[in-house]
Amino acid sequence: MTILSVTDLDVRYGQFRAVRGVSFDLQKGEVVALIGANGAGKTTLLRALAGANRIHAGSVHLHGADITASPSHQRVAAGLALVPEGRRLFLDMTVTENLMLGRTAGRPGDWTVERVFETFPNLIKRRHAATGTMSGGEQQATAIGRALMSNPDVLILDEVSLGLSPLVVDQVYASLGGLLKTGTTVILVEQDLSRAMAVADRVICMLEGRVQLDSRTAATSREAITRAYFGTAPQGEHA
Ligand code: ATP
Prior knowledge:
Layout: E1 2-13, E2 16-27, E3 31-35, H1 42-50, E4 57-62, E5 65-66, H2 72-78, E6 80-83, H3 95-105, H4 113-119, H5 136-148, E7 154-158, H6 166-180, E8 185-189, H7 193-199, E9 202-207, E10 210-216, H8 222-230
Parallel strand pairs: 3-8, 3-9, 6-7, 7-8
Antiparallel strand pairs: 1-2, 1-4, 4-5, 9-10
The structure holds adenosine-5'-triphosphate.
Adenosine-5'-triphosphate binds next to strand 2 and helix 1.
């Protein structure tokens, strides 16, 4: 069942087309890794899906409803949640307070503070701590938990690894593992190709604002993704 449909999307900064004619459909329960070099347009695309960047042309449909021009809060209410790059938490509020904010923006559903703590057990002992005093990994888990509290059908994660040590990234992904099996549809930006291929059913690689490769993970190879990433043709072909 198609849950999110993106058609011929164009997003611009002034005259500069950061996202160019991007189209893809997401099926319920798919986990998609969005990859691409710095500046490829990944964050711009995710922010456009979430309503944080204005869409210049094309359309976005969620559950068949056109949300292309909807403000962010309406998209959250319709079931789409973004965990932004840099997390954007309220640092003087506690973990629980940050999580409850996700609830006010969202819609009814199964996610509760307790369920977030089951998913991210490292947060339990920190539940009354001011978020600003916590480690990067704990803050990232809180940011993901806050998005989950809105009961999204589509969860968008922009660079969950950014600024975290490899050990902490392992912990965040280990916690995410359980979530990824719950049938939530996920788009995640991940710079580490091995990690992206390990968690995702499908890989979409962007190059200079366009989709260069869109494939089921099992049907592609590291080499093909690397070529798409750098925009190089396979041996014997000309770009
Ligand atoms: P990164 O991995 O570095 O975050 P990205 O793939 O997410 O890269 P974007 O951040 O979406 O890429 O940037 C896409 C292009 O748009 C880049 O050329 C970038 O310089 C440009 N860009 C991004 N934000 C702005 C902005 N606010 N104003 C003007 N240009 C921007």
